[in-house]
TrEMBL record:
<dbReference type="GO" id="GO:0070573">
    <property type="term" value="F:metallodipeptidase activity"/>
</dbReference>
<dbReference type="Pfam" id="PF01244">
    <property type="entry name" value="Peptidase_M19"/>
</dbReference>
<dbReference type="GO" id="GO:0006508">
    <property type="term" value="P:proteolysis"/>
</dbReference>
<dbReference type="InterPro" id="IPR008257">
    <property type="entry name" value="Pept_M19"/>
</dbReference>
<protein>
    <submittedName>
        <fullName>Membrane dipeptidase</fullName>
        <ecNumber>3.4.13.19</ecNumber>
    </submittedName>
</protein>
<dbReference type="InterPro" id="IPR032466">
    <property type="entry name" value="Metal_Hydrolase"/>
</dbReference>
<keyword id="KW-0645">Protease</keyword>
<keyword id="KW-0378">Hydrolase</keyword>
<keyword id="KW-0224">Dipeptidase</keyword>
């Protein structure tokens, strides 16, 4: 266990967490429930209240104190062309139908004001994030349509490179971004859509940070310094978040948290899986805080996006447990509130004006 301050008692930690959640409930950067419901439920939005085999259901979201969720409108990048565009639209439709089916639980959200309204009314703000620019079929027009439908961020790549950006998990082709990739980042800025740098290579991270005039996010990544996984973020990138204003949303995927677990998962998987716990997640959170600063960290669980999660964080009801672990390490209520939701809420607010009126300027890319 690492520590930012002297540890405190369990009772005091619980009080700190409650105080933090009064200041800011959880706003999570990435959840793949829509894709899970495509895979296992034929996109049904019925019966989602409780007792599901998924990492997410309504009861667990309430227990987890989630007030804002970026639902990933993801399609596997084995889908290409018009099929990828169609799949993304189906994902968006699922989130819209989810909110329509459960109006006492979910509210579609496009802005910081929407998130605050949802919280005031006891609802879960439902935002959209598109994972992987393959979903655009290299069409800026599709990007603009997604913005009109309420998509607030675009992850520049997924597992594989696009024609204009390098992925973290593919052989480099572009040394980061091509000239067209630079223009896509500028178009995202113009639209008020957040540039999401999870899944991209370090060269792409730096190229995007060199280009963007708005804060970036990492919707679900962890720290290379603790585990040098290609999906994690190096310290030289983390250090740039202070000047950029962006946020690393630490993820809970065991392969990104633990070298031992990654070796097991990527090998023969013989014997029991190495233990990964809330403490491992807290270590990544604390490292990101030390390098990037308290204003530049958040949470992006990736629930329903992988098979296993750390002990104590098996579903969306686990966020208070993580906050408790950090409180036991000496985090204050104000610091926990910044991590839980205030930081990413600030980033959304800073880009709201452009997102509300993107037609006030000329597109960077037309075709």
């Amino acid at each position: 266990m690492t520590s930012t301050a002297a540890s405190i008692s369990a009772a005091s930690a619980a009080a700190v967490v409650e105080a933090a959640l009064k200041l800011s409930s959880v706003i999570d950067g990435h959840n793949d429930w829509a894709w899970e419901c495509r895979d296992t439920r034929d996109y049904s939005v019925e019966g989602l209240e409780a007792g599901l085999s998924t990492d997410t259901d309504i009861a667990r979201l309430r227990t987890g104190r989630v007030v804002g969720q970026f639902w990933s409108v993801y399609v596997n990048d084995k889908l290409a062309g018009a099929e990828a565009v169609q799949g993304t639209l189906e994902q968006i439709d699922w989130v819209h139908r989810l909110a329509g089916r459960y109006p006492d639980t979910f509210m579609l959200a496009r802005s910081a004001a929407d998130i605050e309204e949802a919280r005031a009314n006891g609802l879960i703000a439902s935002l959209l994030g598109a994972e992987g620019a393959h979903c655009l079929n290299d069409s800026p027009a599709v990007l603009r349509v997604l913005a009109r439908l309420g998509v607030r961020y675009l992850t520049l790549t997924h597992v594989h490179n696009t024609s204009w950006a390098d992925s973290a998990t593919d052989a480099a082709e572009h040394d980061g971004l091509t000239a067209r990739g630079v223009d896509y980042v500028r178009e995202l800025n113009r639209l008020g859509m957040l540039v999401d740098l999870s899944h991209v290579s370090p060269a792409t991270m730096h190229a995007a940070l060199d280009t963007t005039d708005s804060p970036v996010i990492f919707s679900h990544s962890s720290c290379s310094a603790l585990h040098d996984h290609p999906r994690n973020v190096p310290d030289d990138v983390l250090r740039r978040l202070a000047a950029n204003g962006g946020v690393l949303m630490v993820t809970f995927v065991p392969q990104f948290l633990s070298a031992d677990y990654a070796a097991w998962a990527e090998g023969a998987m013989t014997g029991p899986a190495p233990r990964v716990t809330i403490s491992d997640v807290a270590n990544h959170v604390e490292h990101a805080r030390r390098v990037a600063g308290i204003r530049h960290i958040g949470l992006g669980g990736d629930f329903d996006g992988t098979e296993e999660f750390p002990i104590g964080l098996e579903g969306v009801d686990g966020y208070p447990g993580l906050l408790t672990e950090l409180a036991l390490r000496g985090w204050t209520a104000e610091e926990l509130a910044a991590l839980a939701g205030q930081n990413v809420l600030r980033v959304v607010r800073e880009t709201d004006a452009r997102f509300a009126a993107p037609t006030s300027s000329t597109p960077i890319l037309v075709r």
